[in-house]
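Shipment paperwork, digital attachment
Item: protein structure file
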Amino acid sequence: MQDDDELCLCFHVTRRKVVQFIRVQKPKRASQLSECFGAGTGCGWCRPFLRKLMDEANPETVNLPAPEDYSLQRAEYRKHKSS
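Attachment content:
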């Protein structure tokens, strides 16, 4: 996943926005990442990835899935969540 790829697909929040928010705001809890354009408050798929970025000293170096895989995995997650 590149910097301008969407991490929160519900609210179209990019990885770059989340990393910058973490660097500037220094949130203490993962739930505070919701203040970054609503990230993590939609379907919930991105929450583990948001936590992963927050838990790292250098969030820009965290390896996340490719956008295509990420989107497909989210579609499966939403399908199972709604059934």
